From TrEMBL:
Residues 269-370 form the HTH araC/xylS-type domain. Keywords: DNA-binding, Membrane, Transcription, Transcription regulation, Transmembrane, Transmembrane helix. The chain crosses the membrane at residues 6-28, 35-55, 67-86, 102-120, 140-161, 182-200, 215-233. InterPro entries: Homeodomain-like_sf, HTH_AraC. This is Helix-turn-helix domain-containing protein. It comes from the Bacteria.
Length: 375
């Protein structure tokens, strides 16, 4: 327990309750989707954690802690599955939650039952005794398994996102609005939160004899409440059209000695050099396939096999080359570096800088300085 702080309690309660309201709005937002339901659950579970801290400390102040032990609000085991299935829904819009998937939430049910037992009550109270009883170690084990569950599902979610990021590069040359970066941020925040929280509390427990608890305990949950409220708000505003349904292409083993399709290479090079479709920032695989009179899946396979690059990278390679040509033209100084990049088909400064650095190992500014020295 920590010393009560009215200001922090108020912030936690306001943000926590607001997050709960937002979770309800997200769950019933039209059109109703499975992704929104899991996001709502995720926000709700984290809001519960924040509200739980305020309730337990207030009831402690009124000498009613024994009553709180019968109404524990924290539900750690629901966070991981909710996060994972939300990510699954976002990266695979056709995903359907089946009966067998309920097995992931069985630990949540067991956790809820555990909090209704005397093992939890005596174990939780025993944490504050000089010599902890056996039930306290059972309670701590249950808590640690819950945290490991969150880490495991979070890592699985990040893997799904990474695969999605790789997959969209097979289809699109403009991926900023499809990258789901806003989702990666809360995943990383929550992974870091539980990791740092456990590290700090254990260091404080074994090295400082819990003397630092007053400095980090309530501020930590205040930040958690604010972040959870933000995620709920961001989720409520998220546009459904940002989600695309991608079908994975068949993976083929890379063989650098494989015979290149010279007919395809000639046709592809001629199209890119004459019609310059890469100048269109919204160019995608289907559009390029139409120009080449090919099916998108076949085109993607041809690009990977013959150019050793995915669609996204090969298009940006042509854009970088076009940018380099503009820098040696007579009207170079009429536009800024970003202006030239936009003219070459790039849609943002960050995408341009990343692509240019990846291809040339130099920043655009460094490349221009080198060019001026040699000219």
């Amino acid at each position: 327990m920590v010393t009560s702080n009215t200001i922090l309690f108020t912030i936690i309660c306001v943000c926590g309750l607001q997050a709960m309201i937002l979770s309800g709005l997200v769950a019933f937002k039209k059109p109703r989707t499975l992704a929104n339901i899991f996001l709502a659950l995720l926000v709700f579970f984290y809001a519960l954690i924040a509200i739980n801290i305020v309730v337990v400390n207030v009831m402690k102040d009124y000498d009613m802690l024994h009553v709180f032990r019968y109404m524990q609000l924290e539900l750690l085991y629901g966070i991981g599955p909710a996060l994972y299935f939300y990510t699954k829904c976002i990266t695979h819009p056709q995903f359907q939650f089946r009966k067998k998937d309920f097995i992931h939430f069985i630990p949540l049910l067991l956790e809820f039952i555990f909090y209704r037992t005397s093992i939890y009550r005596t174990g939780s109270d025993g944490l504050y005794l000089d010599v902890m009883p056996t039930n306290s170690y059972i309670y701590l084990t249950q808590q640690w398994i819950g945290v490991l569950s969150i880490w495991t599902y979070s890592i699985a979610s990040l893997i799904l996102l990474k695969k999605y990021q790789k997959q969209i590069k097979e289809y699109y040359s403009k991926i900023e609005h499809l990258s789901l970066k806003w989702l990666q941020t809360p995943i990383l925040i929550y992974i870091s939160y539980h990791f740092l929280w456990r590290i700090v509390t254990e260091i404080d427990r074994f090295i400082f004899d819990k003397s630092l608890r007053e400095y980090y305990f309530l501020p930590n949950f205040t930040i958690l409440a604010i972040i959870t409220c933000w995620i709920g708000f961001k989720g409520y505003l998220k546009k459904t059209q940002d989600v695309v349904n991608l079908k994975p292409f068949e993976k083929k083993s890379k063989n650098s000695n494989a015979t290149k399709d010279q007919n395809f290479l000639s046709k592809f090079k001629h199209l890119m050099e004459t019609r310059k479709p890469y100048l269109n920032p919204d160019l995608n695989l289907a559009m390029l396939a139409d120009l080449l009179e090919m099916k998108p899946r076949l085109l993607s396979s041809k690009i990977n096999d013959n150019l050793n690059q995915n669609f996204y990278d090969i298009v940006n390679t042509y854009r970088v080359e076009a940018f380099k040509e503009r820098l040696i033209s007579h009207d170079r100084d009429q536009l800024s570096l970003l202006g030239h990049a936009l003219e070459c088909g790039f849609s943002s400064k960050s995408t341009f800088n990343n692509a240019f650095k990846k291809i040339t190992q130099k920043t655009p500014s460094e490349y221009l300085r080198t060019l001026k020295k040699t000219s």
